[in-house]
Amino acid sequence: MLKRVLAMDYGASSGRGIIGKFDGETLQTEEIHRFDNSPVTMAGRFTWDLPSLYGNLLAAISKAGSGIDSVGVDTWGVDYGYIDKNGHVLSNPVHYRDRRTESVRSEFFGVIPWRELYGRTGIQDLSFNTIYQLRCDLKDDLHTVRAAERMLFMPDLLNYLLTGEFATEYTVASTGAILDAGTREVARDLLTRIGFDPSLISPIVFPAHILGTLTDEVAAATGVPGGLRVINVASHDTASAVLATPAPDADFVYISCGTWSLLGTETPAPIITEQSEKYGFTNEGGTEGKIRFLKNIAGLWLEQESRRRWAREGKRFTYDELSAAASSSEPCRYLIDPDDGAFTPPGDMPRRIADFCERTGQGRPEGEGEIVRCIFDSLALRYRWGIETIRRLTGRRVSEIHVVGGGVRETALMQIAADACRIPVTAGPAEATAIGNICSQLIASGEVRDVGEARSLVARSTELSVFEPSGDAGMWDEAYERFLKII
Predict the structure, then answer these.
(1) What is the pTM (predicted TM-score) of this model?
(2) pLDDT at 250 over 80
(3) Closest CA relative to residue 160, chosen from 205, 94, 199, 211
(4) Cα distances (angstroms) measured from residue 134 to each of 62, 159, 473
(5) What is the domain partition of the chain in residue ranges?
(6) Which pLDDT belongs to residue 380?
(7) For residue range 345-404, what is the model confidence (pLDDT) as tens digits?
(8) 268 CB-contact burial (10 Å; exposed 0-12 / middle 13-18 / buried 19+)
């Protein structure tokens, strides 16, 4: 019997509703709804447009119709909203790029020192971490916090609007430095010390938890029976992407490749050491209670922003054209540190890249091909650094890289990554986040036994591409030595 489920996958700039169809052997997907996610600035706050996000959730359920068995929601991490005692949303959730947290950390560390916070939560120091945002709420929006009965992360908030049920899903909660990494529970004492009432946070549930069914109101609005089940999937988008990584063994390294490159591995327990702190590794929640031990690396943002700059200058290129130009350019001639702060804001990315190269004694890359080749080579060498660091910190033998997400379409980068790292790259699926969301729902329904079986399903249902190392190994070794000096 065909099983049909709806995955709602929210990204920071757009969202999609995707139907997963499982016949007992293979999985097929069909996109039925796509929409923009356009944040809004209101009264001095940069916020998410929650009514629009919710409206598109209802629209996707309505399009899916009565033939679906369940729905699951995944989003980005960190951000959240408040519900009052009457069950009403108090305000639009604040966007993680709002500037309110810029000055809070120095004051915060006077209450909870950084070493203690990392030692408990295992989460890297990002200015928009949830625990910093909560401290801002207590300083600037205390009236909102006092009126709240619940605080819910974005996917939990959308699930509440569907069902009226409160729960805090583990993978998304883990992103904000509010969980004890060892116990996988809310670090209540840390929240109390910053003045935040931990009872506002609902109990932790894990992926593949059946939350409830649609309320009568939602059923009437969508035309779908109220018995439709809502599943807590691996609701942080990267956690869903990792779930859909078709790796045959447990010691794999993944790269979730898109605007960002999230490079990591799964571990049974957190790794919180002086070395993991030094190298900026973070411990986020994964499926089956595992830890996603990972490093955030700048990704295709560098190419995307360069392409936007060239378009403003009247030079419009497809990504395939830029990849072809990069492939025909000299390898390893120019290198940058892709994580340098100069490359974080939008703007004239090609000029910044050329300035960095000139400042580090390499000369100036010229033309689109040399710029994109510099980006690809530098990302690939950063991946090599990340893999070698994981080997040191975990003792694991890493013999293959699994790349998932939209970046797998950049086949030139996939080949360069294999060449630079000197190990094969298996690329796919591109739609890993939605597929992982679907797999959580299939596990919840008993159609798929566990994560291992889900990954086998993805492997036989997806066309994967394998890139073997090629080229001059010595050239890449020499480039890596130069890269280490640059970073």
Answers:
(1) 0.93
(2) no
(3) 211
(4) 35, 21, 49
(5) 3-235, 236-428+464-487
(6) 98
(7) 788 999 999 999 999 999 999 999 999 999 999 999 999 999 999 999 999 989 999 999
(8) exposed
The whole-number pLDDT of residue 1 equals 75
> Residue 237 catalytic?
yes
Per CATH, 3-235 and 236-428+464-487 having the same topology is answered yes
Report pLDDT digits (tens) over 334-348.
999 999 989 987 889
Report the 10 Å Cβ neighbour count for 400.
17
Q: Which residues contact 377 (CB under 8 A, 6 or more apart)?
A: 331, 332, 334, 335, 416, 420, 479
Q: Is 314 left (phi over 0), alpha (psi -120 to 50) or beta?
A: left
Q: Which residues pair with 292 in a beta bridge?
A: 266, 284
Between CA 279 and CA 239 the distance in angstroms is: 21
For 61-90, what is each residue's pLDDT tens digit?
999 998 999 999 999 999 999 999 999 999
pLDDT tens, 311-362? 999 999 999 999 999 999 999 999 999 999 899 878 899 999 999 999 999 9
Angle (CA) 472 475 479, round 5°: 145
Q: In Å, what is the CA distance from 199 to each residue of 140, 142, 321, 425? A: 20, 16, 54, 45
| Catalytic residue selected from 237, 339, 340, 477 | 237
- Could you tell me the two tokens for 375? 């980006």
Which of the four pLDDT bands, split at 50, 70 and 90, describes residue 442? very high
CATH architecture, domain defined by 3-235: 2-Layer Sandwich (3.30)
We find that the CATH architecture of domain 236-428+464-487 is 2-Layer Sandwich (3.30)
Q: What distances in angstroms separate CA 390 from CA 69, 106, 243, 275, 281, one per listed residue?
A: 40, 30, 19, 11, 9
Question: CA angle at residue 133 from 132 to 135, to 5 degrees?
Answer: 65
